[in-house]
């Protein structure tokens, strides 16, 4: 599994000014609806419904909002780097400035069950989120994710080789 399987360069935004979690969700849904058949308001309702079930803020100023979409054939991700952190009501009480949203079509949900735990593990990597905060452009963020995916692949291969020895 790789972050870049679900995220494209076009879905990365850096240095954003957003005033609230609601505004962040609106932006995410605007990006997603421009690339799918999903209506912006139904996407927004899905994200808000999921957020009411439980806060999607992780520790360290990171959030992974997610929801099911009624249309589509593969998950779609959006990454936002905020210029100023927003109140997110995360468990660690920190404001959030890095947001990785993932929207999963209902038809893909069973096969995507390992995706959210994987993303939570990835975004607990201090080196990754420090680099993402320092990135100045979507291209730089994309390069960070590509390098991270490559390092994870190498690590998985090494672990696989050790277990077969």
UniProtKB/TrEMBL annotation:
GO terms for molecular function: protein kinase activator activity; protein-N(PI)-phosphohistidine-sugar phosphotransferase activity. Transmembrane segments: none annotated. It comes from Gallibacterium salpingitidis. This is PTS sugar transporter subunit IIA. Gene3D superfamilies: Mannitol-specific EII, Chain A. Residues 5-148 form the PTS EIIA type-2 domain. InterPro entries: PTrfase/Anion_transptr (IPR016152), PTS_EIIA_type-2_dom (IPR002178), PTS_Nitro_regul (IPR006320), PTS_SugarTrans_NitroReg (IPR051541). Keywords: Sugar transport, Transport. GO terms for biological process: phosphoenolpyruvate-dependent sugar phosphotransferase system.
């Amino acid at each position: 599994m790789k972050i870049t399987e679900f995220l494209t360069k076009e879905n990365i935004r850096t240095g954003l000014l957003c005033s609230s979690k609601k505004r962040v969700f609106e932006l995410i849904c605007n990006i997603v609806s421009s690339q799918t058949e999903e209506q912006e308001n139904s996407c927004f309702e899905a994200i808000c419904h999921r957020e009411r079930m439980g806060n999607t803020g992780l520790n360290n100023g990171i959030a992974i909002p997610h929801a099911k979409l009624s249309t589509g054939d593969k998950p779609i991700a959006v990454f936002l780097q905020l210029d100023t952190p927003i109140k997110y009501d995360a468990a660690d009480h920190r404001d959030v400035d890095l947001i990785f949203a993932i929207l999963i079509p209902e038809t893909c949900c069973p096969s995507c069950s390992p995706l959210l735990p994987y993303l939570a593990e990835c975004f607990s990597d201090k080196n990754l989120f420090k680099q993402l905060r320092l990135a100045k452009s979507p291209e730089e963020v994309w390069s960070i994710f590509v390098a991270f995916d490559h390092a994870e692949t190498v690590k998985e291969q090494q672990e696989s080789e050790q277990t077969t020895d």
